[in-house]
Specification:
258 residues, single chain, 14% strand, three-stranded antiparallel beta sheet, 24% helix, 10 strands, alpha+beta
C-alpha cells in the first residue's frame, strides 16, 4: 500500500479524514484499518555551517503533486520535474554570476516549516515519499518505509530522515534570495509544488550541507540526472543565479540523462 499525496484536488485518504495542504491540495492517506499514533520527530539542525546547512527534519505546509515513492523512482515523487531536454533549455536561460555575500544570512529568514490544516510541510513530504505509511490524527507519520534517493538506504523510522531542500537555503541566499521579501523566502523553504523538497537520510543530507552540484553530488549515481533536473528547475522557478562551475557541472549531469 502506498501513500498518495497530490495537489489541485488530488489527495491522500487517511482513515476517512481529509486535510488540505497549502493552497491547492488535499492531504490524505489510505490506511486500511491501521492504528494511528504520533511519532513525528524534529531533528532539524540550524545554523550556518556548510556541513549541515540543507538539513531539514521538522514539518510545514504545501502540497506535493505525485504519488509516494518508496522503492520506486524519485521522479515519480518529486513534483514539477520537466524532461531533461527542457531542463537543458532552462539551464541555458539562467543568469551566471558570482555568489553574493552571506552578510545578514539566517535560516530564520526562510520561515519553515509552515502548517496548513494540521499538516506540516515535513509531514506532507514524509507521507508523499513513503510506502505503507500510517499517520496519526495530527498528520504525523508513525510508520512506513522510506528509501533515501541520495544513498539508496531504506528506513522505517521517520525520525531517521531529513527533509532536504534540493537548493539549500544558504545557496539560495548567495544566488539572489538575499534581496527577496520574507514571503518569497518562505515560499521557497516550503515549496511542495516544485521539485525542492525530498525525504533523505540524515547522513547524506548533512554531508551535502549547502553545497552546489559542482561541490557535492549524491553518492547514488543513478540519481544524478534527476538531481540536476530538479536543481535546475528550482533555480529557474525562483530566478536564482548559478556560478560558472555550477552551470558546467549541471550541463555535464544533464548530458548523462537518458
Amino acid at each position: 500500500m502506498r501513500a498518495v499525496i497530490a495537489g489541485g484536488g488530488r489527495g491522500t485518504r487517511h482513515g476517512g479524514l481529509t486535510r488540505t495542504a497549502i493552497g491547492l491540495a488535499a492531504v490524505a492517506l489510505t490506511v486500511g484499518g491501521c492504528t494511528l499514533e504520533d511519532v513525528d520527530g524534529d531533528d532539524e539542525t540550524g545554523g550556518t555551517a556548510r556541513p549541515s546547512e540543507s538539513s531539514e527534519s521538522s514539518g510545514a505546509s504545501g502540497s506535493p503533486e505525485a504519488p509516494g515513492a518508496g522503492g520506486s523512482g524519485v521522479s515519480d515523487v518529486l513534483p514539477g520535474l520537466p524532461a531533461p531536454d527542457e531542463a537543458r533549455e532552462l539551464l541555458a536561460g539562467l543568469t551566471v554570476a558570482e555568489p553574493r555575500p552571506m552578510t545578514g544570512y539566517s535560516r530564520d529568514a526562510f520561515s519553515h516549516w509552515t502548517s496548513t490544516d494540521g499538516c506540516t510541510t515535513r509531514q506532507t513530504v514524509l507521507i508523499r515519499d513513503a510506502e505503507d505509511v500510517a499517520v496519526d490524527d495530527d498528520c504525523a507519520p508513525t510508520s512506513g518505509s522510506w528509501r533515501s534517493a541520495y544513498d539508496g538506504e531504506t528506513f522505517e523510522d521517520p525520525g531517521d530522515l531529513d527533509i532536504d531542500h534540493i537548493v539549500p537555503l544558504a545557496n539560495a541566499w548567495r544566488s539572489g534570495a538575499d534581496s527577496w521579501t520574507d514571503d518569497r523566502r518562505e515560499e521557497l523553504a516550503n515549496d511542495l509544488q516544485g521539485p525542492q523538497l525530498l525525504a533523505v537520510s540524515a547522513a547524506s543530507n548533512r554531508s551535502k550541507g549547502d553545497q552546489s552540484p559542482d561541490e557535492w553530488l549524491p553518492p547514488a549515481e543513478d540519481f544524478h540526472c534527476t538531481y540536476a533536473v530538479a536543481w535546475t528547475t528550482v533555480k529557474d522557478t525562483y530566478e536564482l543565479t548559478v556560478t560558472d562551475t555550477e552551470r558546467d557541472e549541471l550541463t555535464r549531469l544533464l548530458d548523462t540523462c537518458p
